[in-house]
Amino acid sequence: MPRTGTEATTTTTSGCEADCGVPAMKATLMMMMSCRSRSQSGRAHWMLLLFCLLLAFPSHGPRAVEAFPGGYGINYGRIANNIPSPDKVVQLLRASKIRNVKIYDSDHSVLDAFKGSGLNLVIAIPNELVKDFAANESRSIDWLNENVQPYLPQTRIVGITVGNEVLGGQDTSLADPLVQAVKNVYNGLKKFHLQDKIELFTPHSEAVFATSYPPSACVFKEDVMVYMKPLLDFFQQIGSPFYVNAYPFLAYISDPEHIDINYALFKPNPGIVDPNTSLHYDNMFDAQIDAAYAALQAAGYRDMEVRVAETGWASSGDQTEAGASVENARTYNFNLRKRLFLRKGTPLKPKRPVKAYIFALFNENSKPGPSSERHYGLFNADGRIAYDIGYEGQLPSSAPSYFLSLRENV
What Gene3D superfamilies has UniProt attached to this entry (predicted)? Predict the structure, then answer.
């Protein structure tokens, strides 16, 4: 959100009000230089002038909402009939010291359970509501009035997602209304004075890209760019990051004969060198993020931050899903967690730490699709850990501990 300047509202011209009346820059600087040679009171006046100058010439760039402290978060999906109640989930998250959580709706039982927890929660407007929100700005007001305003500040709602993987998805009728739905939700946040407290974004799948190898060659698909450009223009205006769902697992199972599984799992491997940038990549996760950065830069959005809305590895799958195993899921999630806790960037953006939400908290037994969809959880339905990457479940685990051996072998 652009900052606005501070304007004097009275005719009195004494003290800071006189100095902050936005005089000519040259005159103000001359006054400041004059003050430097005076007594201590003169130096104090110089500091006052400096402060007022900052007010008179504010920054007008977008002010990003800090919705994601640290670099590690988790997706709390609930398409299951056997997972713990939300209050038990809060206990599990706090015990595991996971403080950034993203859900896929605005279920009130979850919002109630998160009250007073200190956990940061991102809630969602699902795809089936996108058209309605685009057509009726009042709908966003009603939704915020029902699902956000009554829970603040006890429940720390720090972000709202509008849809999930809309662009490049199968329902092409959602592409056109998406940007208007986002704008209407933002206008609703402004009415409640929450635009500087709640981050607004929409996650994208890898399907929005025409190519992603090498990373520097990545661009958005032409048919997607028609809808992506106005969306990115708006997000740039309000300071929102670009969120992508990055899955080395999905890339690997699509071409297991040509992709080194060690490269996908953060294990020792020769890596790749991008021929256009000479940057070396020793893992696919970083390459996928830099591919998103390259697409943004090619589209003219050089300063937009890339964050990961989903990433993970299935612990089981169909026979056609190569690499879906407990051992690989453990290795990927352990190495990913270690990588995120280092708070480092990517080869292309070394000074911008990566932030990612892991998919997912639980195995969700009611999810449709291939078997892998039901086996992404770090925890089993009863609260036990699915495999050991350093977390403790609600109950003693019956699974063998691999944590120490992983330290030596990954």
Answer: Glycosidases
